[in-house]
Amino acid sequence: MLDFTMGESAAELRGRLRRMVAEFFPADFLGAFTDDPADLAMTQQFSRKLAGEGLLTVAWPREFGGSDGSVWEQTVVREEMWAHHEPRGPQYMGLNWVGPAIMAYGTAEQKALHLPPIATGDAIWCQGFSEPESGSDLASLQTRATRVGDHWEITGQKIWTSYAGMAGWCVLAARTGPKDSGRRGISLFLIPMDREGITVRPVRAMLGPHHLNECFFDSVVATDGEMLGEVDAGWGVMRTALAHERVGIARYARCERLLWLLRDVLRHEWTDHDEGVRNDWASALVQVRVARLLAYRVVERQEGNQMVDLEASQARIAATTCDQQVAEVVSQLLGPRSLLGPAAGAPSHGAFEDHWRYAQAATVASGTIEIQREIVSRELLGRPAVG
Amino acid sequence: MRIELPEAALDFGRVADSALRGAGGIDLARDAESDPRAAAKAEECLASIGLYDIDPRDGLDDAVAAAELCRVGGSHAVPFPLAGILLRTSPGTPFALVDAQHPVIDHALAAGTWTAATLAGDLFDAEPVTAVDSKIAPFAMTAKLRPLAGTATVLDRRLSLVLGAYHLLGIGQRALKLAIGHTKVRKQFGQPLSDFQMIRHSLADQSVGLEGLDLLCRFSLWSTFTDSSPSLVDALSVRLEAQRVVKHTLRVAQQLHGASGFADEYDISILVRHAQPGLRLPTDRGTTLALLRTAIEEYGFAGPFSLTEEQGAG
C-alpha cells in the first residue's frame, strides 16, 4: 500500500548529516566554487570525513567501497548535500554517475584503479561531453580519437566542463567512428587531466569561479585500457549516466530549505508583505513537493531496475523550472535585499542571491529543458530517437 | 516508501474503465445532456462493478479504490456524482462541499437531499432548487441550504477535496490522450501537427504537470489518513494543483484540436465543458490558494526541510 515515509534509518541519517554539516562548515558556506581556495579544501576534507563514516558512497556495494545502503538513504544524502550547498564540492559527479558507470561497464583493472579513490573522496572527476558546436546535439560531437599503432590519439575541444581546473580525471567522449556516425560512433575514455596535450582555460561565468572551463586536447594519447565500454558504444553509457544525472542533483531540496529559511528571515515582517506574494510562496512550496515526488518515483523505479528515461526527464523538467520559480518568489519577497552579496550583508550570507544565479543555469546544465521535452514527447508520441 | 499503486487498485481501475467504455464512455456524458436515462445507465454500470461496496472513510485500501474509480470516472466525464455518492452520509444522501454564499452542486439531481459542508466544516442539508442552465455546467443546480448541528469531519472534507482532485486528474489524462491522438493524425503544411517541435514540447509539459498531479494525489490521499493535525493543508494543495494543471491541459488540448475543439462531436469539447464545475466548485483557484497559504502559515507544509534545522526534521 502507499507509504511516503522513508523509514527510521533514513530519518536518522538525515539528522546525522545535518549535525555533521553544521559542525564542519561555517554558517556562511556557499559551496566550493568561490574565490577563497579554503572553501574547496574544506569540501575535500569533508568528503574524506563522510567516506570515513561510510557516508560518501552510501548506496554503493561493499565490494566497491560502499555501505550497501538503500536508494532511499542515498536520496537522503543527495537532498541534504544539495540543500546545504553541496559540501562534497566537486565530488558528486564521481559518486553519482562516474563510479556507477565504471561499476557497470568498466574492466576489472578500471574498477580497481578508479573506484577506491572515488569511494574515499580522493578523486575529482570532470565530464568532457559538450563541445562548441555540440551542445544539445551532443551526438554530433567531433573531438576525434584516432587509432595510431597500439593506442589512440585524441584531438578536439570541450567546453562548459565543470571542475576541469581542479579535476584529476576526465570521462572524455570522442568520435571513434566515421564523422557522420552520430551516436553510433562515440567512445568514452578515462583520462588523467595531467596528461600531455591537455590545456584547461577557465570561462568566467555568473556561477562563480572555477565552475566552467574550456578544455583543449592536442594529440592526447589514450590506451585501450582507458576506454570505458566497447569501441563506438559510448552513447549507451552516456545515456545511462545522464539518466542518473537528471535526478542526481536534488534541486528541490535546496528550494524547500530556502523557502522555509526565507520565512524565518522575514518572520517579523511576514504579514507586512502583500498576500499575493505570500500566495506565490505557498504555491512554490506545492511545486517543490511535486518535484520531490517526481524524483522519488524515479528512485523507486531505479530500485526496481526499471527504465527511467521518461520519468527522469519529467522529474528534471519539474525540478529545474521549480528552481527558477523559487528564485523569483524569493526575490519578490526580499525586494532590494535580493541584490546584496555576502560582503554587503545579504540575508543568510548570500544564500538567496547564490540560488538565483544557479537557478538561471538549471534549465541548461546536464541537458537543456528542450532536450528533456524531446525525450518526454518522443515517449508520448511513440517517435524514434534522432541523431 | 511505496509510490506505485497496489496491483489490486490498478486492476480495479482497468475493470472500471472497461465497464464505462462498454456503457458508452464519453457518449454517456454527451447523451446525459438531453436524456436523464444516461445518468441512470452510468449509475447502473458503476454499481455493477462495486461502487456501493466501497467506503473511502474505512481506510487507505478502500480510499485508493475510491480514488481510482473517481479518476477513471473523470476520464469518461461520467455524468454521475461519484465522489459525492462514495462519501454519502446515509443511503441516498450524497455529500458535497459548497460555497455557502452561492451553493451550487454538480449532478445535483442524483438525490433529493444532499449533505453539504463548507471547507470550514459548517454542515447543511442541501436541496437542489434550479438548474444553472449553462453549457459549461449542464448538470449543476443551485441548492437551498438548511444549517445542521455539528461540524463536518476533517476526514470527510479531506476526502472530498482529494477525490475531486482525482476526478480532475482523470479528465486531464484523457484530454492529453485526445491531444496526442489528434496531433499524430491531423496534418497541416503537409505534416502531422506532432512534427512541430512547439507542439511536441507543449504536450511534454502537460504530461509533466499530470504526472506530478498524479503523485501529489497519491501523497495527499495517504496523508488524509496519516496527518493527525486538523488541517486541510495537503488536501487543499492537491486541489490547487489539480485546478492549475487540468485547467491548462484542457486549454492546450482544446487549442490543438483547432475548431474541432468546440464541436461537441469531438470528445474534447465535452470534457472541457463538463470539467468546469469540478474546476470551480466549491472554490475557484484564487480562493483555494488563499486558503492553502493561510493553512500553511498556521500548520506548516510537511517536507524534509519544513521545520527549522535545529529541530532536525526527518
TrEMBL record, chain A:
Domain Acyl-CoA dehydrogenase/oxidase N-terminal intervals: 17-122
UniProt GO cellular component terms: plasma membrane
GO molecular function, one term: flavin adenine dinucleotide binding
InterPro entries (alphabetical): Acyl-CoA_Oxase/DH_mid-dom, Acyl-CoA_Oxase/DH_mid-dom_sf, AcylCo_DH-like_C, AcylCo_DH/oxidase_C, AcylCoA_DH/ox_N, AcylCoA_DH/ox_N_sf, AcylCoA_DH/oxidase_NM_dom_sf, Mycobact_Acyl-CoA_DH
Cofactor(s) listed in the protein's UniProt record: FAD
Keyword line: FAD, Flavoprotein, Oxidoreductase
Gene3D superfamilies per record: Acyl-CoA dehydrogenase/oxidase, N-terminal domain, Butyryl-CoA Dehydrogenase, subunit A, domain 2, Butyryl-CoA Dehydrogenase, subunit A, domain 3
All residue ranges annotated as the Acyl-CoA dehydrogenase/oxidase C-terminal domain in the record: 233-380
Family: Belongs to the acyl-CoA dehydrogenase family.
PANTHER family linked to this entry: ACYL-COA DEHYDROGENASE, ACYL-COA DEHYDROGENASE FADE29
Name under which the protein is recorded: Acyl-CoA dehydrogenase
Species of origin: Acrocarpospora macrocephala
Top-level taxonomy: Bacteria, Bacillati, Actinomycetota, Actinomycetes, Streptosporangiales
Automatic annotation (TrEMBL), chain B:
Keywords: Flavoprotein, Oxidoreductase
One GO-annotated biological process of the protein: fatty acid beta-oxidation using acyl-CoA dehydrogenase
InterPro entries xrefs: Acyl-CoA_dehydrogenase (IPR050741), AcylCo_DH-like_C (IPR036250), AcylCo_DH/oxidase_C (IPR009075)
SUPFAM superfamilies: Acyl-CoA dehydrogenase C-terminal domain-like
GO molecular function: acyl-CoA dehydrogenase activity
This protein's GO CC annotations: cytoplasm
Residue intervals of the Acyl-CoA dehydrogenase/oxidase C-terminal domain: 167-276
Source superkingdom: Bacteria
One of the Pfam families matching this protein, by short name: Acyl-CoA_dh_1
PANTHER family per UniProt: MEDIUM-CHAIN SPECIFIC ACYL-COA DEHYDROGENASE, MITOCHONDRIAL, MEDIUM-CHAIN SPECIFIC ACYL-COA DEHYDROGENASE, MITOCHONDRIAL-RELATED
Name of the protein in question: Acyl-CoA dehydrogenase
Organism: Acrocarpospora macrocephala
Upper taxonomic lineage: Bacteria, Bacillati, Actinomycetota, Actinomycetes, Streptosporangiales
